[in-house]
Design goal:
mainly alpha
């Protein structure tokens, strides 16, 4: 008798997949904290922060996904995102002295491409995996970042009175770097919650199975 083949599903390695979420959360949290506590919100700092983040994320997540994602199509989509991140991060670091236009263009392209790939990964897993919700939300947030960066006016500058009558200037680069930092913080919290939820849910399922036996 031939055993019917079961379709590959990402749940084939649920105890491992939560690690991807948590690792991504740590990387997002690191760049969010760096931007938050940096007084310099120039385009150069934005390109450096994004470049290091994208490059490290691409290498780490791409390598981990090879062993931790069972579904072939989903694994390929994650690796494609990793490759895009590596190229975007390398370009950002190489062009970190070129200014705001490069920051807006690089992040917009990266966020647009990786966001759409993650949305597609989530769409594929609808009715097949509870992880589809995580992919769809994360992809939606990243795609939204692309839209925001496209809409950031490159020549915006506004000066208001700050603390102790010191002038406070809001520029396009401050807006862009701040928005990326906020996006990273939101993603860090969301992915951390999602990853730990997967881990705890699996632990509960194992405990219930042992009790029933």
């Amino acid at each position: 008798m031939v055993t019917p083949a079961r379709p590959h599903a990402i749940e084939l390695a649920p105890t491992r997949f939560w690690i991807l979420h948590v690792v991504r959360a740590v990387l997002f949290a690191a760049v969010a904290l760096f931007i938050t506590f940096s007084r310099d919100h120039s385009a150069g700092l934005g390109l450096t922060a994004f470049g290091v983040f994208a490059l490290v994320t691409g290498i780490v997540i791409g390598a981990l996904s090879v062993r931790m994602v069972a579904d072939r199509a989903t694994r390929r989509l994650i690796i494609a995102q990793a490759v895009i991140s590596i190229f975007a991060g390398t370009a950002a670091l190489a062009l970190r002295e070129t200014g705001l236009g490069t920051l807006l263009l690089t992040v917009s392209i990266w966020a647009g491409m990786t966001g759409l790939l993650e949305l597609y990964a989530g769409y594929r897993l609808i009715r097949r995996s509870a992880l589809s919700r995580d992919f769809l939300i994360a992809g939606g947030l990243t795609a939204l970042l692309a839209v925001v960066f496209v809409l950031v006016p490159p020549d915006f500058q506004q000066t208001d009175g700050g603390l102790n009558n010191a002038p406070l200037t809001l520029t396009s680069s401050v807006m862009a770097v701040g928005v990326f930092g906020a996006y990273a913080a939101i993603m860090a919290v969301f992915l951390a919650i999602g990853g730990l939820s997967i881990k705890w849910q699996k632990a509960d399922e194992i405990a219930s199975t042992e009790e029933s036996e």
